[in-house]
Amino acid sequence: DKTPFYAEAGGQVSDTGKIIGRNFEFEVTDVKKQGDVILHIGKTTKGKLTLEQNVKAIVDIDRRRSIMRNHTATHLLHRVLRETLGEHVHQAGSMVAPDRLRFDFTHFKAMDEAEVEKVEHLINQRIWENRSVRCVQVAFEDAKKMGAMALFGEKYGDVVRMVDVEGYYRELCGGTHVDATGEIGLFKILSETGIAAGMRRIEAVTGEYAYQLVNRQKEILG
After folding, report:
1. pLDDT of 70 above 70
2. Interatomic CA distance for residues 172 and 143, integer angstroms
């Protein structure tokens, strides 16, 4: 009923890691929520698992940090797209993994090169400003009054979790996030494509994966 592992939800993949006990080790490869219970899926790599014993649950922190960078970046992307293309832009889906992010949004035509470059630059500006990021529990009505973005079609309870990017953007979200935008490091767009009528998709990378992308491009140019 309690765990430090994030269970797959809201487009964000689950954490992975280990659960260690006396004379046994369990490798966690997936985590899902079923009602009030959190299922840890994986395999025993050492010894035998027995009931009623104390265990230590250890999340793969490097992977978690990569996911956090990508999740906060999707929020910045949502805001910047609305600033650049117009307030008609709404999130239509997302996928947040350690190695990349995918963001689907409503827009009536393909973005041109200048628009893609502007979006990428504005997001990196928000990163360089190193704005603090806070996750707070607030009443749903109060969150609406504060101008927090809510996902269309989502059901929200009386109390919600709001992600607040200092002086810039608020959105309701249950995922994991960085403590400051500077932790994202670098944001690079991989592609902008159409997936359906009036629907576009951006794929992007952040942090170490963005650095690797820049190095690969440099090698190709060389």
Report:
1. yes
2. 8
